[in-house]
């Protein structure tokens, strides 16, 4: 009776574990802040009379709670501040998530390829990371906007292709350490396909690190994007954005401060909530690395 060779699937099992996220006080506070921001973006469009672009000069600069139809007041053109804040929240968060997702995909892919292949490919990835890191992103976007018309798509394209270095460096180190592990080498020695090894054993060990960086980057991208919108380099009027609303309301800061406080407060909730969650994700990631190091 001859022994039959076992398939790679039965011999090799990648030691991956699903990340566990504990609900600490910091995480609850961060989640509550993010929930408030999401409610501001989701609820007003469902209410009757939602019209963020409708102007009414006779109702300009109404104070909050002064009129039942405008609970947060109006801006200088009589547009409902809650409606515009809701649309601005959706726009800003949508652009932010698009930028973070694009950077995560680009950086993780480059990092995995460079770390897994190694050699000259890893050196090229290192040079690309250093060159990209040296680019002045804001000045680059200003120069591009001087040639092309500023838009949300242009902001996503520029920031989405220049903020991937952190993802690439971390995933490159992880992939470089994984390529020498037994559960990665064994399938290859038994004739396994490289793509199968990457998707089954390398990527599942890399994506938790990508998730931690992505959550951490959200607050940074929100602030950077809002700054660009304040400078007029992002979403163009009449579509509202947090930075654009702050720019428009600063003219009336002395008499109608709510036109600036409202978008600034929502931005604060988004950034602080993302920071609290990223702190928890980072702590969980460090704990997982320590546990893994202790088990090895």
TrEMBL record:
Sorted UniProt keywords: Cell membrane, Membrane, Transmembrane, Transmembrane helix, Transport
Protein's membrane topology: Multi-pass membrane protein
Statement: the UniProt record of this protein carries the keyword Metal-binding: no
Record's subcellular location: Cell membrane
Domain ABC transmembrane type-1: 93-278
TM spans (from-to): 27-47, 91-117, 124-144, 150-170
Pfam hit, one: BPD_transp_1
Keyword Transport attached: yes
Top-rank taxon, per record: Bacteria
InterPro entries according to UniProt: BP-dependent_transpt_permease, MetI-like, MetI-like_sf
Coiled coil: none
Stated family: Belongs to the binding-protein-dependent transport system permease family.
Protein's recorded name: ABC transporter permease
Species of provenance: Microbacterium marinilacus
